[in-house]
Write a structure and sequence with these properties.
Elements: H1 8-23, E1 31-32, H2 34-41, H3 45-53, E2 65-66, H4 67-77, E3 83-89, H5 93-104, E4 114-122, E5 131-132, E6 135-139, H6 143-149, E7 152-157, H7 164-173, E8 178-181, E9 194-197, H8 200-210
Parallel strand pairs: 3-4, 3-7, 4-6, 7-8, 8-9
Antiparallel strand pairs: 1-2, 5-6
Helix pairs in contact: 1-4, 2-3
Bound molecules: nicotinamide-adenine-dinucleotide.
Length: 211
Amino acid sequence: MSRRRIPDVVIRRLPLYLRILDDLDHTETPIISSQELGARSGVTPGQVRKDLSFFGVFGKQGVGYNTGNLREELRKILRLHQQVAVGLVGVGNLGTALIRYNVAREKPYPEGTGLKLVAAFDKDEKKVGRKISGIEVFSLINLPELVKSLKLSVIILTVPAEAAPGVLNHCIQAGVKAFLNFAPTKLTAPPNVRIHHSDVMLELESLAYFR
Ligand code: NAD
């Protein structure tokens, strides 16, 4: 099955499976069953088996999946076996916190693979040239050349809502096709561009209902 025809919900569960496998000691747990993977990720064993079968990954019937192999397969499927260079635009309160988080957190990826924040951008000249946790802040004007030289393929948007559409277009023109948007605004893009949204306020507002 082509990458395009696999349901989004399936792709979104894969990092969850990967995190569970990353947290396991593979010598202590060399095999994991779909029951266990499902229980730990909050889906049924059947769903686990179906999700993985989309990619031709099958466990041994009645036994399960080899944890080390499954982890490698998931990294390949998500293309995290290569280095994925990430940029961030908007070095304000949230942008700065995310840069610090990225650098400080424990990295589960083997050297030369996985997500890596490599550059930040801002329109404020006073911020350009500064380094935050070793990550340099560049002017947005330099984005197209840095997309090429650093192979930036994912951009985090932490600019004000009114600036987000313009920044998004600038990045798309430079060739970026994947975005994580924190600005509280709906963004539109061509079908070959993927935008995921993250919004703490929406999460909190829906939690208000469950109190
Ligand atoms: P901030 O004002 O502290 O930072 C915004 C930064 O963007 C500034 O450094 C500014 O110079 C820069 N900027 C503005 N226009 C730009 C442009 N055209 N090009 C490049 N840089 C530009 O704001 P903040 O508190 O860090 O919030 C940033 C965004 O994140 C806002 O849209 C806010 O609503 C949103 N936010 C989202 C969540 C969430 O859960 N999704 C949480 C907090 C904030």
